[in-house]
Design a protein that fits this description.
Blueprint (H helix, E strand, L loop, with lengths): L2 H6 L6 H6 L1 E4 L2 E4 L5 E3 L8 H12 L2
Antiparallel strand pairs: 1-2, 2-3
Length: 61
């Protein structure tokens, strides 16, 4: 059993089949065969310039 099977409860195959086994319900990823549920969210990847700008703004308070 690999990491994907341990996490989802099913074997990963081709893209379309694997995608059909997963459902995003609001902010919850549901693995349909097993019923396992995981909280999903937004991954932010700001640039260094964005972080510097935000730091300047926070530091100005």
């Amino acid at each position: 059993m690999n990491w994907f099977e341990k996490l989802t409860g099913f074997t990963e195959t081709d893209y379309l089949t694997t995608q059909s086994q997963l459902s995003l319900q609001g902010e919850t990823l549901v693995c349909l065969p097993s019923g396992k549920r995981y909280q999903a969210g937004l991954l932010l990847t700001p640039t260094l310039a964005d972080l510097r700008q935000k730091n300047r703004f926070i530091g100005a308070r």
